[in-house]
Amino acid sequence: MVHGSKLLARRGHELIVYDARAHGESDPAPGESGYGYPELLTDLDAVLAETVIDRPFVLGGHSMGAHTAIAYALEHPELAAALVIVGPVYTGPVSEEALAYWDGLAEGLERGGVDGFVERIEAAGIDPAWRETVLRIARERISRHRHPEALARALREVPRSLPFEAISELETLEVPALVIASHDVADPSHPYAVAEAYAERLPDATLLSEREGESPLAWQGGRLSREIVSFCAQGKVAERLAAE
Questions:
Q1: Gap between the Cα atoms of 71 and 163, Å rounded
Q2: Which of 230, 186, 190, 229 is nearest to 211 (CA)?
Q3: Residue 156 and residue 170 in contact, taking contact as beta carbons nearer than 8 Å
Q4: Spatial separation of the C-alpha atoms in residues 56 and 241, rounded to whole Å
Q5: CB atoms within 10 A of CB 139
Q6: What distance in Å separates the CA atoms of residue 201 and residue 217, rounded to the nearest whole number?
Q7: Half-sphere exposure of 114 (CA within 13 A, CB side)
Q8: What whole-number distance in Å separates Cα of residue 142 and Cα of residue 149?
Q9: Residue-wise over 203-217: b if at least 16 C-beta within 10 A, else e?
Q10: Which of 36, 42, 126, 244 could form a disulfide with 161 if both were Cys (CB 3.0 to 4.6 A apart)?
Q11: 164-190 pLDDT, tens per residue?
């Protein structure tokens, strides 16, 4: 989520990161299991059990990871000291049009590998001012996945899985939250309005974004890390992190 930035560690925070199943360095789903949010929540619970144990922690994620973090907090509202929600997308069951987009990305990856995936991204439409940057980032990121066939399956299954029923459920979360939005010109796949809606629903949320025309804050690991450090130093969050 912080794109390799070491700032959090330099500021005294222990940073625990992992790749979702079939993403990055992680293996495909084991046995007969799949890639939906129930499995993602099971994986998150296992990671926390091995690393955090009984210590207070901040739970964060980007896009699918953001939905996973919120779903976990809804199931365990007493555990996370705070949330960092970057680029949320989910507002309810995904439309057939959106499912066709994800299916197209999966098919592009299966048939054409990295090039096929990037071609589908380009075909979906990109603002000319951001075309080169978006395609470069898409190519760099998709190239890092070790199991493209399993990733293609995940691209089909995750959008068909619900992390929670409706964003109205966020109103029950009293945990402090930092919500990071991106302007739609550069990153239309993570709509600003959705992040704004999350911030409005969460009872104790701070909404941050880049200025219009700038590279999305979600893409700037160092700057995003600074915002997280600042958020963790705020009174209520700092108190919750210091609690035994």
A1: 6
A2: 186
A3: no
A4: 5
A5: 14
A6: 21
A7: 13
A8: 12
A9: eebbbbbbeeeebbb
A10: 36
A11: 999 999 999 999 999 999 999 999 999
